[in-house]
Amino acid sequence: MVASYAYVNARVGGMRSLLMEEAQYKALVESASLEEAINFLKTTVYGKELGKLASLSLYDIELALSKSVVEDYEKIVRSLRGDAKVFAEEYAKKCELSTIKSLLILKLTGEKAFTLIPYKGLSETMIEKLLETENVEELVENLRFSEFYPVLKEVLSKFDGKIYILTSAMDKLYYKKLYQAMKELKNKDRIVEKLIGSEVDFKNLLLVLRLRGLSKEEVWSYLIPYKYKLKDDELRIFFNTTSVEEIISQMPTNPYSEIIINGVKEYEKTFSFLPLEKEFNKHIISLNKKCFYGDRFHLGVPIAYLNLKENEVRNIVAILRGKEVNLPPSEIMESLIL
Hints:
It is built from 19 helices and no strands. It is an all-alpha fold. The longest helix has 25 residues, at 300-324. It is globular and about 55 Å long. The two termini are 31 Å apart.
């Protein structure tokens, strides 16, 4: 185990040393304008990629940043062997998953939810083609190259404009294949179950909270059928209860208790689950950072690095988009997951 991860850890250590520090985030956030923020970004590890761009439009910058994520995924996958490599290959498909979701949301609502990440068959040319489609149905038909096409095609008959019908079908397929690959991992490599399990718990919890009002059978049909710390009995508590007091009295102690209770309290004040999403994301990022403590000779280290890299790019994009619409620095800083 130690020998197999010596090279991987050396490579990950070098890449991790290039991640932005809090002082750099602060300087980026406090830039006087979008142009100044972009100029500062040129002084970071991303400067080389930005220097290749013919245009420094926000779209082109986001594309360059997302490409750097894919490049790191490819470096990590090439460095691994055996079952760990198979798992990483499956995990990397989240790039395609995220982009297809973003395209569907964009087609349905006009909202650009996430950066569009070119990945394998989902090339820049293909993304441009998909952006030109007239509606969700046409977009799905043009995804025949993707392993997500069959499940999207299947649920289109039930699609009534609610995006979760499509995105949940994709999530279920993605995590099914990921869990199949994870079952083959041995010994300390199983630490990735904590990272993946927390992601799944978070997604299932948000679906249950957002879809209250539908029948239990329908809601459960959308859930990822793999549970980690939030089992069905606990999810039913959130589905059936209507107040913070009921949740506090009925919820058994679990690693997310404080996050969930505070998130539901904020929802009662604001009718938004964004505070809950933010705190859960912070928890997941914290779990990933802990993979670098102590023994590092396991698959959790490269997977955690990739999650931290993705989070960094999301933070940078959030800062640049905030600068574009002149949000105050305090508001931009508050939105970041550090």
